[in-house]
């Protein structure tokens, strides 16, 4: 059926078709969603292309001790063993057995002076900060153990100044021995944005610290 | 999310192309559904008493049904093919993304937090694109039911329920401490999203021994692993979390909580695509 369409001849008629309500709603919602996602993509891209300056931190390990501990399962009659600390539980949350009853745990105290405020820009939701012991052993060429961590949610709390802070997580190797190992303690951060790409980095690290011989009781 | 955006653009594109079809060959279906405004369609025609009023919504629906009846077999087949093509292209993009990121499910939704032995578990679910769930974003405003799910999760305040996480797993890159990983414990279905806190790379085999922990948990994940399992390895890890988009996964969560809704939406969507023709 050929219908003459007079849009060209009529001065008031600028569109060639009319759209019903459903079509309009569809077009509007499709456009709104396109705009929303373009905006989110732009935010993600911008904060990826223009990252905030990297912060620096001074980490100094002031004390590093190693204790050989013997796990006692009965509370009331702990057997005394020569040169061993008898403990009824593992250090901190690390209560699972490494396959042995006698394990060497390292204990440390560290000074921290870090200003992480530059990490907080317009697209920062939270910053996860952790102190990581990094070392090499004969059987394992790369080892990383988190010994302390914190979550910073706003700029006001982003300056970390600690003196003699202790490790909150157990420092234990897979071999459960620290003899002859040298570790490097570094402060690492992981930034979660409101929208976009996660970013991580190294703020600073201590000098290499050799583990001492296990203390005798 | 990529394929979702793609889908939106595709629908725009189809709409765009079709709305600019030459209007001279108006016949059958189109002639029946076109709203006829006298001054618009027939500018030389002066409205007079007794001219039919502009059609109502009901009349529009009736027109659509009438139009659908007028479709011939070839046109119906075309519509079905159209629908299949949208689904197939979404699936193709999804699989391509999977190949590019080297992760079996490159986009996951933070689904539910489960309390187990005083440990909060963050579980993730692969986004199921093949069912075209994402298209239903048009139909449900996803933000209305947010208050309903206000659990304390193990990765809070970084991730909450309904957040969308983008994963990848480059073969050249090893896992580091501080990375947030999605991993599957053998014998269990639901992946977990937690942070790596201990890592030992074995010299001989190059195998990575990983220990994970939720940021908001007091203890590490050894209580969540299988009996006697001390570490997880790279082959348990689905992917590292690289990107983050809040709230968008709520649609998937709604679908998961109310399966009937899924069928209603999918049925409605299928019907819509079949019947609707611009």
From TrEMBL, chain A:
It is a single-pass type II membrane protein. GO terms for cellular component: signal peptidase complex. Belongs to the SPCS3 family. This is Signal peptidase subunit 3. Essential component of the signal peptidase complex (SPC) which catalyzes the cleavage of N-terminal signal sequences from nascent proteins as they are translocated into the lumen of the endoplasmic reticulum. Essential for the SPC catalytic activity, possibly by stabilizing and positioning the active center of the complex close to the lumenal surface. Essential for viability. Its main location: endoplasmic reticulum. Keywords: Endoplasmic reticulum, Membrane, Signal-anchor, Transmembrane, Transmembrane helix.
TrEMBL record, chain B:
PROSITE patterns: SPASE_I_1, SPASE_I_3. Gene3D superfamilies: Umud Fragment, subunit A. It catalyses: Cleavage of hydrophobic, N-terminal signal or leader sequences from secreted and periplasmic proteins. Keywords: Endoplasmic reticulum, Hydrolase, Membrane, Protease, Signal-anchor, Transmembrane, Transmembrane helix. It is found in: Endoplasmic reticulum membrane. It is a single-pass type II membrane protein. GO terms for molecular function: serine-type endopeptidase activity; signal peptidase activity. Its main location: endoplasmic reticulum. InterPro entries: LexA/Signal_pep-like_sf (IPR036286), Pept_S26A_signal_pept_1_CS (IPR019758), Pept_S26A_signal_pept_1_Ser-AS (IPR019756), Peptidase_S26 (IPR019533), Peptidase_S26B (IPR001733). Belongs to the peptidase S26B family. This is Signal peptidase complex catalytic subunit SEC11. It comes from Jimgerdemannia flammicorona.
């Amino acid at each position: 059926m050929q219908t003459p369409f007079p849009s060209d001849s009529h001065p008031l008629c600028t569109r060639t078709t009319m759209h019903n309500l459903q079509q309009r709603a569809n077009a509007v919602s499709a456009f709104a969603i396109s705009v929303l996602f373009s905006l989110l993509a732009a935010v993600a891209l911008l904060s990826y292309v223009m990252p905030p300056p990297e912060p620096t931190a001074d980490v100094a390990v002031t004390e590093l001790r190693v204790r050989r501990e013997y796990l006692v399962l009965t509370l009331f009659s702990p057997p005394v063993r020569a040169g061993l600390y008898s403990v009824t539980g593992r250090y901190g949350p690390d209560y699972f057995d490494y396959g042995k009853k006698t394990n060497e745990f390292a204990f440390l105290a560290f000074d921290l002076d870090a200003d992480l405020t530059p990490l907080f820009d317009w697209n920062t939701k939270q910053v996860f900060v952790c102190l990581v012991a990094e070392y090499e052993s004969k059987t394992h060429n790369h080892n990383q153990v988190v010994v302390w961590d914190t979550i910073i949610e706003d700029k006001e709390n982003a300056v970390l100044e600690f003196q003699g802070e202790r490790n909150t997580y157990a420092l234990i190797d897979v071999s459960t021995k620290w003899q002859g190992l040298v570790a490097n303690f570094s402060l690492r951060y992981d930034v979660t944005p409101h929208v976009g790409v996660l970013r991580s980095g190294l703020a600073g690290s201590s000098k290499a610290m050799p583990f001492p011989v296990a203390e005798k009781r | 999310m990529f394929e979702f955006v793609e889908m939106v653009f595709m629908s725009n594109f189809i709409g765009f192309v079709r709305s600019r079809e030459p209007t001279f060959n108006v016949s059958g279906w189109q002639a029946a559904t076109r709203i006829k405004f006298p001054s618009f369609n027939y500018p030389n025609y002066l409205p007079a008493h007794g001219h039919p009023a502009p059609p109502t919504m009901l009349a529009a629906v009736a027109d659509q049904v009438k139009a659908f009846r007028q479709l011939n077999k070839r046109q119906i087949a075309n519509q079905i093919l159209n629908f299949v093509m949208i689904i197939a292209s979404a699936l193709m993009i999804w699989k391509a993304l999977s190949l590019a990121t080297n992760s079996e499910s490159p986009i996951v939704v933070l689904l539910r937090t489960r309390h187990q032995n005083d440990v909060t578990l963050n579980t993730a679910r692969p986004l199921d694109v093949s069912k075209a769930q994402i298209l239903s974003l048009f139909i449900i405003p996803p933000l209305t039911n947010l208050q309903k799910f206000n659990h304390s999760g193990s990765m809070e305040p970084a991730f909450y329920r309904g957040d969308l996480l983008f994963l990848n797993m480059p073969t050249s890159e090893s896992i580091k401490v501080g990375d947030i990983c999605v991993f599957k414990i053998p014998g269990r279905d639901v992946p977990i999203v937690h942070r790596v806190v201990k890592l030992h790379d074995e010299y001989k085999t190059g195998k990575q021994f990983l220990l994970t922990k939720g940021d908001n948990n007091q203890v590490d994940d050894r209580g969540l692993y299988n009996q006697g399992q001390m570490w997880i390895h790279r082959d348990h890890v689905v992917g590292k979390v690289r990107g983050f988009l809040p709230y968008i996964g709520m649609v998937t969560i709604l679908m998961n909580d109310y399966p009937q809704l899924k069928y209603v939406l999918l049925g409605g969507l299928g019907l819509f695509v079949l019947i609707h023709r611009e």
